[in-house]
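Archive entry: two folds, one per protein. Generate the first.
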Amino acid sequence: MNDNIKIIELNNKLTRYERELKEMKCNKKDIENSFNELIHYNIHNRRNILTYLMNINSEIKQLSHKIYKLYNHRTNIINKHNKIVPSFMTSYASLLM
């Protein structure tokens, strides 16, 4: 598969995952901001809400890791074609001129 197509597919995945991550973080923040209201709930409902919050945290962690891996993969593909010349080689080349 062509590397440009791989990068486009990775960018599409990253966009989708980042959108999901943003929604999850927003949902998490809404729950955390409503902690003061938990005193009005019974213990069973509090437990359910906190379990749900823990699940969101776990999903955020997993999705963040996926995003990190995709960025690394994309960077590796890009760097494969953009070889960096070591600094000692550039200084040696300037001496030859």
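Generate the second and append.
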Amino acid sequence: MTKWIQYVLSDYNNGIYTIPAISDGEAVYDDGVATSGSATTLVDSTKSGVWTTNSIQNKYVTILESATEALVGTTRRIASNTSTAITVDVSFPGLVGIGDQYVVHNSPTYSDKYKDFTLINIAALNNHNYDGESHLYPNSSIDPYVFAKGDRIRFITQGDGGRSSSVPFGTPLGVYYDFEIIGYKDNNAATNILLINKFGWSAAGITDKFLVEIYSPRLGIQDTVYYAMGEEYDVLSPGTANRVHAGQLNNQDPTNPSVLTATGILTQGDAYYYKRYFSAELGVTYNSGMVESQNMSDLYLSNSYSKGKPFVVLKNAQSKKYRFFRWSDKYFADTAINGLSRFQSANRTKQLNEEDGEIVKIQSVGFTLRVLQEHKPSTIYIGRSVIESDGGDGEQYTTSNSVLGTIRPMSARSGTVFPNSVWTEDNATYFFDIYNGEFCRMAENGITPISSYGMKKWFRDKSRTLLLSGISDVDCISVFDRKHNSLIVTFRDYSNSANNETLLFYEPLNRWITWASFKPEMYARSGDHLVSFNGGALWYHDGSGSRSKYYNTQYNCEIMVVSNTDPDKIKTLEAIELGTNNNKLGATVASMWSVPEITTPVTSYYPNGQLTKLYAQNWVPRQGKIYSEVKRDVYTHGTLNLLDLINGRPMQHNYFKIKLVHTNPALVDLEQVTLYLTPSE
């Protein structure tokens, strides 16, 4: 396949032609003198980069990646005895002209690497102030372009199509084309070729010698500043219903103000508009055009102008103080005195430690406020002060005239950035600390990471995953379910829904007991009644409807049982017995417990692990319970075969995972799971 090269011969000296862009192993074919037919004669198949012969002067040549590549007949002419760039045959694939100012072309067909990009040749732009032969001002202050991440390119005109002395760069584009610059071709600035995402430049009418603007967008959030112009015009009939704007040419009509508006001509701005001379490649007739610039002249840096009087627009005209408290005056019941709307400058506490971050949530517990900052919790006594005894008798509390008394930071370096994760139930305040990878409970005995109760690694891994998505794109919400004495915690990742999960912590046992299928947007509670919001709708939990049904989606009840008795010994799983109220056969078989998976881990001896299952029909009633022998391994012969449920090898390992599934939405109890194991010989 034909290899594209911008310049074939870059130098001619005493009969020596140099082709610096050729690589080892590539081949050059002689296509004949002044013809554009198929290449026929092999000039050089080894490539040294230099040809010491005049035999290819003034001829078409084809550059191939190797001598064995198929010829496609696309050609290029070599200039005669000069350093001038070659002229390109119009049939050459993937190229639109060789303009000296801005050249756009799609990725050459030989390279899959750039097939999804459009390539922009800015060699002439980077030589703008050095090309003394083709530029009227060789000492121009326009420096060569240096790419910076975030730079963009804006296409302004079509180029060759319709060029004239009045529009030297062609007709302005009717559609706004603006792309982020990805970088340099081959990640090499020396190529002078920029990469942008591929787009239909040909269909847009972009040809050759078109005008573009390369710019760096302003980064960060800044206040919007407006500057007054030099001209000022009065408001006529001010203070009346007929007030209108005066204008330089016409005043606004008070009888028809929306149609006959004030008009004038603005003669000042923040950019200069003047003629710039470009490369002679644009043609003798059209080698200049009017452009916008922040500089008054191209000959020196002059990007200054009179901005006038500034006017700043503050979207939120308020001052935020994140680390101290203010309180209102008092409200006296049964009187006309209500000071809740008045805040005195003296009614505030000293500022909390700035290193501990912003105040995220405040919870009231008894005579204290629990203040959660991003990296530290504190307690503040309400109307009380703490006196510490030197004799070691502990602390004494005294009343205080101040609304807020002693501030006591906790010793633990824990905090939260998720206010929705904070929930206070009785004396316990729960919150999620993503930076420490912990879910914590704050009480009178200090801070306890309840995530350490069997879930320490899971919470740390979860925190790392959420941090990869970014704090602004994730949330943690929690609520305490009084009916079931459980803390419900939901993680939401708005950039990756696969990270959304809900799990429950059972307070009486200090255990994380289960995952749940619901993942709402928010929780709330009134008394013992728990509600959640999903899809903008309010849903009531523990209603009278079907069990395991969340937000109109019915789920199965699933329980995973893990057996790890005598972990050092290999055991055979012989049978399973369930103590359940769903223990009758006959008409209710379809609604009974099933065991779709009994598995063991993958090992070198069991490359697929082991897998078996039990169907609802396999259960046999026995002494008020249901019982079934365990079937055999379906991977006995290497691949899954259900016949091996009968003829396969027994389930043998150190431990087993048993998945129980119940599809009946009615109430069902599971009181006991008994596994019958025997030591393996």
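Annotation attached to the second fold: Confidence is low (pLDDT under 50) at residues 1-111, 129-135. DSSP finds three helices and 49 strands in the chain.
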